[in-house]
Amino acid sequence: MLLLTKRCLGAMTALIVLQGCSTPTNQLSSTQAERVKVRVDATMDVSSCAWKGDITGSEGHWYSSIFYGNDALARGAMNDIKNQASELGADTVLLLSPLDFQTSVTLIGSAYRCQK
Questions:
Q1: Matching InterPro entries, A to Z (predicted)?
Q2: 17 or 74: which carries more pLDDT confidence?
Q3: Where do the domains of the chain lie, and which CATH numbers do they carry?
Q4: pLDDT tens digits for 54-112?
Q5: What is the reported pTM?
Q6: pLDDT of residue 7
Q7: What's the rounded Cα separation, in Å, for the pair 38 and 116?
Q8: Contacts of 40 by beta carbon, 8 Å cutoff, 6+ apart
Q9: Per-residue confidence (pLDDT) for residue 13, from 0 to 100
Q10: Which of 1, 70, 90, 102 could be a cystine partner for 111, CB 3.0 to 4.6 Å?
Q11: What are the phi and psi torsion angles at 54 (to 5°)?
């Protein structure tokens, strides 16, 4: 019985440690990142925009779904892609199809500078 209690305590400790490691880490890093527009409109006209690069935003690990819902992981991935767009000097991201897994979320898009 004592061995079973030690195993349960060990398992609970491991889960608590993993939870600390799985906190969604991606927060918006600047007010410029807050202003980045993320679009999923396939008909968006980018002819007057300057392409800044392709970017990938992601959040989550193999154990993240134990502690966080998909909404928190999606928010972290969105923050990550906005931060990267901001670093490139972009103000708009045109998202491709999101890749959502059970344990993480990954967004892929093209960053543009559309405002003069």
A1: DUF4156
A2: 74
A3: 2-113 (3.30.110.70)
A4: 999 988 877 777 777 777 888 888 999 999 999 999 999 999 876 666 678 888 999 99
A5: 0.72
A6: 61
A7: 17
A8: 94, 95
A9: 56
A10: 90
A11: -90, 140
> What 3-state DSSP class applies to 79?
helix
Q: How far is CA 31 from the centre of its chain?
A: 17
Cα–Cα distances (Å) from 112 to 34, 41, 107, 109, in that order, read 15, 14, 16, 10
Tokens (6 digits) for 12: 């609970």
In angstroms, the CA 86 to CA 17 distance is 33
Q: Which of 106, 100, 18 is nearest to 55 (CA)?
A: 106
CA 54 to CA 96: how far, in whole Å? 10
Which two structure tokens, joined as six digits, stand for 42?
Answer: 């396939």
